[in-house]
Amino acid sequence: MLKLDNVHAFYGKSHVLHGVHFEVRDGEIVALLGRNGSGRSTTVKTIMGMVDATGSIVWRGQPVMGRKPFEIAHLGIGYVPENRDIFPRLTVHQNLQLGEKRGKKAPRWSFDDMYRLFPRLKERQHTEAGVLSGGEQQMLTLCRTLMGDPDLIMIDEPTEGLAPKIVELVAEYLRELKRRGISVLLVEQKLTIALEVADRCLVMGHGQIVFEGTPAELRANAYIRKEWLEV
Known about the structure:
This protein is of the alpha/beta class. The protein has ten helices and ten strands. The two termini are 33 Å apart.
């Protein structure tokens, strides 16, 4: 459904991605792993049209390189940024409403689905989002993106700074996405959660893909883990 081929990305004169290529298939979770500075976040921002880039990015047969972020979102790609962009003066429920995408087909997700996935959000649905904890804000950002009914959701570091109990909630959230046929591109530093939920793992280093394989193959590859993942 999504294919990158020879993608190079730039921040001004800085050349960040160097010929990135991979694909995401229907209904699978792909973990994009690597150390800080390896190019993982730049990759998803490039897919969303937020970074100057060259090469080919194709979504369901349509070239998307050069399109604006809102156009790419309307094609069915959802993006959850690392910085948990919320509207702090709006309530939890109002934030979710802003994520809704009204179209001809019935959406796969409802407010009840969101509140079932994360009961804490239901408890705080009338609370201003700005006073939520970091974990609650992460839940809200994930759910607001889902309300747009994407076919692919790209999630950047969803477990960063979260307590172990919330991390497990996020893992269950990812499994639920897969059960509903939504593909996931998961940018993650925690190897344990990636190995637990992913169908395939990609490892980045110096702006390139240096490994692609199953979680079992990554577990067995001590060199890749030591050279490109372990701090």
